[in-house]
Amino acid sequence: MGEATEHVSVLVREVCRALTPVFSRTGAGVLVDATVGLGGHVLALLESIAQAACAPPRLVVGFDRDPDALAIARSRLGAVLGARALVLIDGPFSGLAAQLDEVLAAHAGDGAEVVAVLADLGVSSLQLDRGARGFSWRVDAPLDMRMDPRRGRSAADVLGDIDGGALTRILRELGEEPEAPRIAAAIVRARPRTTFALAEVVAAAMSAPARRKLGARVHPATRTFQALRIHVNDELGELDALLAAAPDRLARGGRLGIISFHSLEDRRVKQRFATLSSPPPMPAHVPLREHERPRPAFAIPPEFRGGVTAADDELAHNPRARSARLRVLERV
Known about the structure:
- Residues 1-5 have low confidence and may be disordered.
- The chain is globular.
- The N and C termini lie far apart (44 Å).
- By secondary structure, the chain is an alpha/beta fold.
- The chain folds into 2 domains: 3-120 and 235-331, Rossmann fold (3-Layer(aba) Sandwich); 137-233, DNA polymerase, domain 1 (Orthogonal Bundle), CATH 1.10.150.170.
- It contains 15 helices and 8 strands.
- Helix 4 (67-81) links the parallel strand 2 and strand 3 (86-90).
- Strands 1, 2, 3, 4, 5, 6, 7 and 8 form an 8-stranded mixed β-sheet that branches.
């Protein structure tokens, strides 16, 4: 099978530019990939760290809830790192806060510090390319959409008993679908259980002006599939848990990088990073000189303010990178 070789990680150069410097400043720390996937970003980082003549990570910790991806990552990363320097955790990255201390104590030894955390959000190429997983309308398959097919309710299960009002809210809030009410009503009437059936229902329900506004390159069901996938996997809840836990786990000088793919994710990352990198509010009547004011514990590196996106040469060979944005936060 060619999934592992065909998968192309997004924003690899930008990730290496963001995270490699921490290994020169902080020494051999711990690298955490909260969405290890097939290991592409970790492999690129290891090569970049070696080229920069920095000490390699003492330990690489990877989280993923997709068993197919973990099996590939274990093979690829294990061949480079060896079993002693690699820990892969079968589960969502919302478990980072609860599991990381235990992992570090067992595998990294005393004084181990996390110097880099990376998260590449959203659905992976592996999940999209394996049509049987039910993430895409391009292949007819059971309507599953679970990143971990062993747990939780599938998209077909959700659509089997949801009411129109609840589905409208999902499509509107998680898919930003302007025609959510009419699409939700059509789905509830049909109760589709396959990807083709859902795509057909959405396309038939959407008004002609809305379809023209999307254009020929965007499938009418794009936003509906996105909304259902986010709901089934609680992606925004997972992201909120990561944003709450990961910054505090960083050593001084460490960095957190998050790649998002749509405005719902990016808005959360942007707001959280802005809050953490801003001075705490002070009452206006408190007379403090500038040097007396409390400083924030985090900063956004100047070269990553506003986030960075894919360069033209990457977009030419990897169109999936067109909506990706990397934001970076550093503990000062």
